Amino acid sequence: MIYTLPPLPYASDALEPRMSKETIEYHYGRHLQTYVDNLNALIAGTPYEDMELEEIIMTASGPVFNNAAQVWNHEFFFNTLSPKRINMPQELKDILIRDFGSVEAFHEQFKSAALGLFGSGWVWLAQDRDGRLHIIQESNAGNPMRNGYRPLMTIDVWEHAYYIDYRNRRAVFVDICRDLINWDKVVERLHVKTFDTGK
What is the CATH number of the domain that holds 34? Predict the structure, then answer.
């Protein structure tokens, strides 16, 4: 199986001015393409060659895992963003209130986790097997699927995600991403029975 970089569900300038065309072209078009190319080179002629991306993430280690997870994580992240502001549906608000006390408390805890993750990685909203929601920090290419959680939303806090537009101001980037989240997509993922990138 040869992995390819799928097109974004919006134009490369659609998130401007909050996320620039330059950022999209470098982050999605070049940086993510490198992970795709690396993964294809690493799995050629190995048992991973015939696996779905999720299966590689669940079974691999080292460079194969790192590149597979980064491909999945990035596609998932970019597919969670929307050029149009999407208000959070009441269904998700009710679950966030149940699990975090309030929607505002969720936002505060998520931002705190994003700012508190040392170095590079991802911060996730994920669902456990009992349906409870959790905020999970994952370093580097980490993905909560490996620990039995269903990813619902993520923010990329690798420096390359925000340096072009916001330099070292991770906090500003996290706030910007919150305003770009397609909350309808997050709710859809609550009801998906298998892991996918939410396309």
Answer: 1.10.287.990
**pTM, rounded to two decimals:** 0.95
Structural domain count of the chain: 2
Q: Yes or no: say if 156 and 74 are a contact pair by the CB < 8 Å rule.
A: yes
Q: What is the pLDDT of residues 36-57, one digit of tens each?
A: 999 999 999 999 999 999 999 9
Residue tagged 């190319």 (tokens): 37
Confidence at residue 195, expressed as pLDDT on a 0 to 100 scale: 53
Same domain for 33 and 107?
no
- Sign, CA dihedral 92-94-96-98, equals negative
The reply to whether 73 and 94 lie within a common domain is no
Give pLDDT, residue 198. Answer: 45
CA-wise closest residue to 38 among 11, 56, 21: 56
CB-CB contact of 31 with 51 (8 Å): no
Characterise 121 by phi-psi region: left (phi > 0), alpha (psi -120 to 50), beta (else): left
User: What phi and psi values does residue 80 have, to the nearest 5 degrees?
Assistant: -90, -10
- Contacts for 21 with CB less than 8 Å, ≥ 6 apart: 12, 13
Q: Which helix (H) or strand (E) holds 104?
A: helix 103-116
Same domain, 48 and 98: no
Residues of the chain falling short of pLDDT 50: 197-199
Is 47 among the domain residues? Answer: yes
The strand ranges marked E within the chain are 121-127, 133-139, 150-156
